[in-house]
């Protein structure tokens, strides 16, 4: 039954890949990216699980008469941070799905 040996080997490889993927996903929570807007007047820090950790607004950008500008900068910096998280996840997890055509996977 030579086919069973190949199947067992494939199952072991899949189990190892699952374990490696779980480890990589766990590591993502400890990695951070920073999105910026307005020439770094507003910064948003996110972790690899897309949790916003910090929002930094430099004092000189604060104008009480133009709150809408600050809102726009925070939104832009947040979107920039989330885009960077997607890139981080893709580079970290993409090696597991490289060459596979799996819908919904990185």
What does this 3D model show about the protein?
The protein is an alpha+beta fold and 106 residues long. The protein has one domain: Nucleoid-associated protein YbaB-like domain (Ybab, Chain: A). 55% of the residues lie in helices and 17% in strands. It has 2 helices and 3 strands. Strand 1 and strand 2 form a beta hairpin. The model has no long low-confidence stretch (mean pLDDT 86).
How much helicity do the residues have?
40-55%
CATH fold-level assignment? Ybab, Chain: A
Q: Could you give the order of strands across the largest sheet?
A: 1-2-3
Task: From the alpha carbons, calculate the radius of gyration and give it in angstroms.
Answer: 21 Å
CATH architecture: 2-Layer Sandwich
How many DSSP H or I helices?
A: 2
CATH-level-4 superfamily name = Nucleoid-associated protein YbaB-like domain
How many strand segments? 3
**What is the CATH level 1 assignment?**
Alpha Beta
Contiguous uncertain segments of 5+ residues = none
């Amino acid at each position: 039954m030579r086919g069973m040996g190949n199947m067992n080997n494939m199952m072991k490889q899949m189990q190892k890949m699952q374990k490696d993927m779980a480890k990589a996903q766990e590591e993502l929570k400890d990695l951070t990216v920073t999105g910026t807007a307005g020439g770094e007047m507003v910064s948003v820090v996110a972790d690899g699980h897309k949790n916003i950790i910090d929002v930094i607004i430099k004092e000189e950008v604060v104008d009480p008469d133009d709150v809408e500008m600050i809102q726009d900068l925070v939104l832009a910096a947040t979107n920039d941070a989330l885009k960077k998280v997607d890139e981080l996840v893709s580079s970290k997890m993409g090696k597991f799905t490289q060459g596979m055509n799996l819908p919904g996977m990185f």
